[in-house]
Write a structure and sequence with these properties.
The protein is of the alpha/beta class. About 45% of the residues lie in helices and about 15% in strands. The chain folds into two domains: about 1-200, 3-Layer(aba) Sandwich (Rossmann fold); about 235-449, NAD(P)-binding Rossmann-like Domain (Rossmann fold, 3-Layer(aba) Sandwich), CATH 3.40.50.
């Protein structure tokens, strides 16, 4: 099948490469000429494990190609997937200007039946908007041309996106046209062989399914952070509580790890969009407002712990940060807790050295004019002379560090563990001080040395 993917960002690249790998011919479209030129050379603009090799392989096999020519893309694809950004608008709602623009352009060039699939995360009713824009474009040309708009939301986790696409837990398709349903089933057949993962529903329900899924996951995170903060106040250990909770199969262990808040390009934006959707129909989403409020506060939890240790005036203090990306195995620092933490420390007068295995280059660009923030190329260079180490992202490389070297290199051997990745007893044995999240019974200070 010929597939056009409009938008060569994170979702578009993964979708295009994975569909190409199973034998489809895929045309990826993007308006950014520099990005397209680099992609044509096999240079990937994002960090996603395995994606660079997959794209280069499919380029060499000539099943995947990149262009800025949208007219060619509309003509080429039997299925046209819209995978452009829907950034958060000023009022918190999703900005649909890119989606609208793509739909309008499809209307300008469409000349035969196409299935137009929304992969972008969009508010309920966007399928209707896309349909209107395409129809308006067709009407202006004075022709008749049939098409079908479907909702096919992505459920890709950054850092694990290729496996998520290749081995999906569900494939949601919102469709109200039988021909389009058959085409979408055929398209996903290679990913649907062991058992039927396809879930067909109406377009609006599919659009809401994506938002509701992310909202539920964000709610679990904020709930667990609330319980962790309570545990600290009442001298309980959230790690033991987590194990006891997760043993209930109705709850499970996923997304009940406390930490220093969620970030990224999805959860913050989607929570905001859902809150605005509720407001637009006169139904305030009180739980989601609380989820956002808790998360905004949780991003400051490590700074709060530093202030308890040293006071609010951190002038002359230097801190190391391990982890800048909002999660491991990505270079995405959008809405990352690290950004809030860095600003909080700077506001108190501190200086910072930071390291991230994937996001260093992006962070350097962000902080290139901030002399008090130094992005270094080695985790152990970051801790040199530090008054505290703040672990913000749970990359594997941070899970079993050289605690002896940490103690020797730091001015004050204190670890603020924002992801509870260390065993307090191990830390204690090495003579370091440790502060976790929700583990008041395990918090301790090492003897002065």
């Amino acid at each position: 099948m010929n597939v056009t993917v409009v938008g060569a960002g994170y979702v578009g690249l993964v979708t295009g490469a994975c569909l190409s790998e199973v034998g489809n011919h895929v045309c990826c479209i993007d308006s950014n000429e520099d990005k397209i030129l680099k992609l044509q050379l096999g240079e990937i603009p994002i960090y996603e494990p395995g994606l660079d090799q997959l794209v280069r392989s499919e380029l060499n096999l000539e099943r995947l190609h990149f262009t800025t020519d949208i007219a060619h893309g509309v003509s080429f694809g039997d299925v046209i997937m819209i995978a452009v950004g829907t950034p958060q608008d000023i009022d918190g709602s999703a900005d649909l200007s890119y989606v609208r623009e793509v739909a309008s352009t499809i209307g300008e060039y469409i000349s035969s039946f196409k299935v137009v699939a929304n992969k972008s995360t969009v508010p309920v009713g966007t399928g209707d908007l896309v349909t209107r824009e395409i129809r308006n474009g067709i009407a202006k040309r004075g022709i008749e041309c049939d098409f079908a708009v479907v909702s096919n939301p992505e459920f890709l986790k950054e850092g694990n996106a290729i496996e998520d696409f290749q081995k999906p837990d569900r494939i949601v398709v919102g469709v109200e046209d039988s021909i389009a349903a058959s085409i979408m089933r055929e398209l996903y057949t290679p990913f649907n062989r062991s058992h039927d993962r396809m879930i067909f529903m109406d377009v609006r329900s599919a659009e809401l399914t994506k938002y509701a899924s992310n909202a539920m996951l964000a709610t679990k995170i904020s709930f667990m952070n609330e319980i962790a903060n309570l545990a600290e106040q009442i001298n309980a250990d959230i790690e033991q509580v987590r194990i006891g909770m997760g043993a209930d199969p109705r709850i499970g262990y996923q997304f009940i790890y406390p930490g220093c808040g969620y970030g990224g390009s999805c959860f913050p934006k989607d929570i905001g969009a859902m809150i605005e959707t509720g407001a637009s129909v006169g139904y305030p989403l009180k739980i989601l407002k609380a989820v956002r409020q808790v998360n905004d506060k949780q991003k400051n939890i490590l700074v709060d712990k530093v202030i308890v240790e040293y006071g609010a005036n951190l002038a002359g203090k230097h801190f190391a940060i391990w982890g800048l990306a909002f999660k491991p195995n990505t270079d995405d620092i959008r809405e990352a807790p690290s950004l809030t933490i860095i600003q909080g420390l700077l506001d108190c007068g501190a200086t910072i050295s930071a390291f991230d295995p994937g996001a260093n280059n992006i962070a350097r660009q962000l902080y290139k004019s901030e002399e008090r923030v130094n992005i270094v190329d080695d985790a152990y260079d970051a801790i040199l002379g530090a008054d505290g180490l703040l672990v913000v992202t749970e990359w594997k490389v941070f899970r079993s560090p050289d605690f002896v070297l940490i103690k020797n290199r730091m001015r004050s051997a204190i670890i603020f563990d924002g992801r509870n990745i260390y065993d307090p007893e191990v830390i204690k044995a090495h003579g370091l001080s440790w502060h976790g999240i929700g583990r008041a019974r395990a918090v301790f200070s090492a003897p002065a040395h």
